[in-house]
User: Fold this.
Amino acid sequence: MARLLTYGWSTLPSGTRVYGHRPLRLLCHFMDLQPPTRALSGERSVSEVDHLLADLDRQRQADTAALLA
Assistant:
C-alpha cells in the first residue's frame, strides 16, 4: 500500500506515479515546477538539481552498458 501525498499539487496524469523524494524533485525540474523548498516528510536532506542530474546520467550510462553487454 502506498500513501499518496501531493503536497497541494494537482494530481499527475492518469497512470503516472512518482515514488521517492529524489524522483519527485527531478520531475519538478523537468516540468519547470517550483519544488518544495523544505525537506519533505522522511527526506533527510534536500538534494541539489546538479546532483540529481548527475545521478540520472550515471543510471542512464549503467542501463546502456547493461544493454550492450
Q: What stands out?
A: The longest helix spans residues 49-68. The helical segments are 21-30, 49-68. The CA atoms of residues 4 and 29 lie 20 Å apart. The chain has a mean pLDDT of 80.
